[in-house]
Amino acid sequence: MKNRLLITVIAAVLLAGVAIGYTVLSGASPGEAAHSLPVQSGPRLMMLSNGRLSTASRNDPAGPREITEQRCDRAYGAAGTISCLRPVGALKAGELAVLDSQLKELRTVPLTGFPNRTRVSASGRMVAWTLFVDGHSYAANGFSTSTGILDTRTGTLVQSLEEFTVEGLPQLPVDANFWGVTFTADDNRFYATMSTGGHRHLVEGDFAARKVRRTEHDNVECPSLSPDGTRIAYKAAVNGDPQQGWRISVLDLATRRITPLAETRGVDDQPAWLDDRTVAYGIQRDDGLNDVWSVPADGTGEAKVLIPESSSPAPW
C-alpha cells in the first residue's frame, strides 16, 4: 500500500510539472495580475487570458475584456455551459469542470493526462474533451490520447471513445486514438478524428448507439462543424505528414470540396467558428504567448489577429 501511495504521489508531481510547462507555453502567468474592464452588453466572445476565463465584445474583441479568477488550461462555452479543463495541482491530477454562465460548478470529472481539446454542443448539453495520456504532440510518434463525452442532461459519462464500436472492425486496433470532438445540432451525432495504421480519419459518431463509422475523408484532424452544419473546419497535415505542420482547411460535407484557408502558417489547434463565415484559432508567438487569429472560411481574405494574448476562443 505504501509503495502504491508513493507511486501515486510521484505521478501527480510529474503531471504537475507538465501542467506548469503547459501553462507557460499557453501564455498563462499565475503570478500576473489580471486587468479586467467592463464589457458592453451584446454578443460576446469567450477566451482564456493568461489562463483565466474571460469575455470580450464580439464587436470589439481586441477591446475591453472582463477577466475572471477561474483558471483553465483549455475552455469552451455554448448556451450557458462552460467546459473548463483545469490545471493539474501539486498533489492531484487535473479535472473537467462543467460551469454555468455565472461560473457555478455543476459537475467535475477527475482526469489524468495533458489537457488538449474541449468542446460544448450548441445547445450546451454535451461536453467533450481530449487529453494526451502519452506524448504531447500530434506530430510525434507513439502518442496516446483519451477522449470522453458527458451528457449534462442525463449525467451519462463516457470516459473514452475507445469504448465505442467502430463499424466494419471486429475490434478496435491497438494503435487507435480519438481526438477533437465536434457536435451536430441534434446532440447525439458528432464528428472526431480517429487515427490508426498511419491514417487520420474523419469519423462520425452516434452517442446513443455507442458507435462510430469512418468516413471517406482522410487527413482530417480536430474537426469543427460550422453553425449551419454544412462544413467542417479542421487542420490538415502538410503533404499528409504532421511533422511538416498543419494547414487550416474547410471541407464541404455535401460537395466534398476542400478549401485551404488564407492562413498559411502551421496551426496546431481545433478551429472555432465565430459564425458561418469566419474561423478562429490560436497561434503561439515566439515569446511563448498565444494570440487568437481569424480568417474567412471561404479561402479569401487574410488572417488577422482577433484577440491578442489569448487562446481557446468561443462565441458566447
TrEMBL record:
- InterPro entries assigned: 6-blade_b-propeller_TolB-like (IPR011042), WD40 (IPR011659)
The identity of this protein, by name, is: WD40 repeat protein
